Amino acid sequence: MSWHVATVVGARPLTRTARALTLAVPGFVGALPGQHVDVRLTAPDGYQATRAYSLAETGHDERVDLVVDEVPDGEVSPYLVRDARPGDQLEVRGPLGGYFVWHDADTAPVLLVAGGSGVVPFLAMLRARRSTGRRAPFRLVCSVRTPADVIERGEVDTPDRGFDVRWVFTREAPAGWPTPPRRITTDDLVAPGFGPDDGTDVFVCGPTGFVEAAAGLLTGLGHPPDRVRTERFGGA
Amino acid sequence: MAVVTRGFGGRRPEPEHEVPPGQFVTDDFPVLSAGPTPDVDVSRWELTVRTETGEGVSWTWEQLLALPAEDVVTDIHCVTHWTKLGTTWRGVSLDTLLADVETSAEFVMARSYGGYTTNLPLQDLLDGQAWVAYEFEGEPLEPVHGGPARLLVPHLYFWKSAKWLRGLDLMDDDDLGFWEQNGYHAYGDPWLEQRYA
């Protein structure tokens, strides 16, 4: 699998730390929602740094849409969030990963469980569901620190038949929110109404600690482990 | 020749020693698992080696702990680009576990609690290259990192070091494990950057 030259064609701030980037990538084809790419930056002296990022949108060949959340003390994400601007060139390899993927022909109910920027591959799934007109029912449970950290809230909150979202705020909730800030609970995963008996496909993405907690609650509810697909980032 | 990215200087950390191409050094211990972390009870834990003729030999947890153990200090390399230097492990060498196993097989499918699989050539598990590890940095191996016991094959990308190990099936012909069926390389040498099929 080879590297493709990518040119930044769009950049849009989303939160204090997250930014949407659109890259034009000749030769990049066939991405599925949930897949990721490797992104490689090269300094003038030849030094290179590579990191993996989930795709935020699929369905357009020769185009890569990312949402990058800045990692404190990171090496690649601060460049992508703060410095990259239209016309800049970098490299992309992919699409990668064949397991953490939603296929738009699948009709099973889908429960998406996101922690922080773990919502990014789910944006790709939601966008694919909408753009293809598929009617597999989707539920998203989205855990964020504060209202200001929500990525693409306007889009995610837009009413859509067969889709609903449940927000969990862990540090600071919006004014008038019915519950104080708290971590995700079993109730949050039961409330969407897609249980193990519904043949639900579950996807969980977020920081390692969040995924460990959420996946543990889900298997505790009886979701078969082989129907709970996970993607983790960060240390444990 | 790679394109130069305007404005990217890089952090250029000085690794303590050379790392494979495309890797960066981290002090974290990131986690890559396809599904939930299984809850494996050592009172029911068993490791089974099955040969190509179907003969099996098994160890209970107590039997594994009773075998001669080795301390291993090694770098580990994940296909998601992180490398962790100088990790310390304790476990039983595959040379010990396979010493009395009669086989002419050339390949192995490692099987895990939770259903994970990964394929390796048998020769990559022998001659001091692979262990069944149950301690990390002097502590019992945490479930999130593969405890109670995982395969440790540090010269290959770390997805080959199957977490929650429960069995090794010896095979005459190579077959593909879980990630290998999902786009990753059948062998996975980090120094040759064999990430993807």
Question: Can you describe this structure?
Answer:
- The complex is a heterodimer of chains A (236) and B (197).
- Chain A has 236 residues and is of the alpha/beta class.
- Chain A folds into 2 domains: 4-96, Elongation Factor Tu (Ef-tu), domain 3 (Beta Barrel); 110-233, Rossmann fold (3-Layer(aba) Sandwich), CATH 3.40.50.
- In chain A, 18% of the residues lie in helices and 35% in strands.
- Chain A has 5 helices and 11 strands, in the order E-E-E-E-E-H-E-E-H-E-H-E-H-E-H-E.
- In chain A, a hairpin with a 5-residue loop joins strand 3 (36-42) and strand 4 (48-57).
- Chain A is globular, with a radius of gyration of 18 Å.
- The model of chain A has no long low-confidence stretch (mean pLDDT 96).
- Chain B has 197 residues and is mainly beta.
- Chain B has a single domain (45-192), classed as Oxidoreductase, molybdopterin-binding domain (Sulfite Oxidase, Chain A, domain 2), CATH 3.90.420.
- Chain B is built from 3 helices and 11 strands, in the order βββαββαββββββα.
- In chain B, the strands form 2 sheets. In chain B, strands 1, 4, 5, 8, 9 and 10 form a 6-stranded mixed beta sheet that branches. Chain B has a 5-stranded mixed beta sheet with strand order 3-2-11-6-7.
- In chain B, a hairpin with a 4-residue loop joins strand 4 and strand 5.
- Chain B is globular and about 60 Å long.
- Chain B starts with 23 loop residues before the first strand and ends in a 16-residue tail after the last helix.
